[in-house]
Specification:
Elements: E1 2-3, E2 6-7, H1 16-38, H2 40-50, H3 54-60, H4 65-68, H5 76-97, H6 99-121, H7 138-151, E3 156-158, E4 165-167, H8 168-184, H9 191-210, H10 215-248, E5 254-255, E6 261-262
Antiparallel strand pairs: 1-2, 3-4, 5-6
Helix pairs in contact: 1-2, 1-5, 5-6, 5-7, 6-7, 6-9, 7-8, 7-9, 8-9
């Protein structure tokens, strides 16, 4: 990867969440290989309950599958390519965005890809079914890919093993075209391919509309805004009730439009303390 015209062949660091996701994916893949040898039925249960099965999510409430499917993979090549792309593109994004925002974005793309897969599973398209199991981190990885193309589009990437450089935006554009071609080619139609498109779509939405504040920050601001509005309403209501109560006892109290108490004008300014508002003279 190069910045400007200065090329470096150094590998990106293993940042906090990139490292944790890779360890989880590789560890679960190794566990599945072991179960395939010693307990094939347990390996099948891992796929069914950990993978994404649209019918189980909608009809049996297995909502954890919206995330867990991204940690399972079907082959050595599958996990190797996904983890390599996660490392190469995700590490740079986590360094620049920070761990919290990176994790939020990655999970947003993972869940978005899952929701896209579920929607397609119930569509009339050929070759799709609600009982099909989808596994793999491709949805989240393609989300990282489109973010890299949108935010680092002019950065040049060494296309190993090919001996030439290409700008990130062109590389991402080519990969998107390949995904679309593979998804809608009649002989390749499959529900898993739509997870790639879902990751791309939700990644684009986040970068375009949610990137500045993020999801959780925006939600927390809305929550605290509604909570403060409610508390202001309660204070005004209590102030109005107190005004009515005091008027029944021939006493007048005043509150402003926010429900804050307005003290009466000082009636003791002519007292022998020289007009001091305090009753004590030092």
């Amino acid at each position: 990867m190069v910045q400007g015209r200065q090329m470096t062949l150094s590998f990106p660091p293993f940042t906090r969440w990139v490292k944790r996701i890779i360890i989880a994916c590789v560890g679960l893949f190794a566990l599945k290989l072991l179960l395939d040898l010693v307990a094939p039925k347990a390996s099948q249960y891992l796929d069914v309950f950990g993978g994404l099965v649209p019918g189980l999510v909608l009809h049996y409430g297995m909502v954890w599958q919206l995330v867990t499917y991204s940690f399972l993979h079907g082959s050595v090549g599958h996990v190797l390519v996904n983890m390599l792309m996660l490392w190469m593109f995700g590490a740079q994004e986590e360094i620049d965005w920070g761990p919290k925002k990176f994790l939020e974005y990655y999970l947003f793309c993972v869940v978005g890809a899952a929701l896209t897969t579920i929607a397609v599973a119930y569509s009339p398209l050929p070759g799709v079914s609600p009982s099909t199991i989808t596994v793999g981190a491709s949805g989240g990885v393609y989300g990282l890919l489109i973010a890299f193309g949108m935010l680092y589009g002019d950065r040049e990437i060494f296309m190993f093993p090919f001996p030439f450089l290409m700008k990130a935006k062109y590389m991402v554009g080519i990969m998107i075209l390949l995904v679309i071609f593979a998804t809608f080619q009649r002989s390749q139609v499959g529900i898993a391919n739509f997870a790639h498109l879902g990751g791309l779509l939700f990644g684009f939405i986040y970068i375009k509309f949610l990137f500045r504040r993020g999801i959780f920050i925006g939600m927390s601001e809305q929550y605290f805004g509604l909570r403060n509005t409610y508390y202001r309403w309660k204070r005004r209501r209590a102030a109005k009730k107190f005004e009515v109560y005091m008027s029944k006892h021939d006493r007048k109290v005043t509150f402003d439009e926010q429900g804050n108490y307005i003290p009466p004008e000082d009636q003791d300014s002519g007292k022998s303390n020289g007009g001091s508002k305090s009753g004590w003279i030092n």
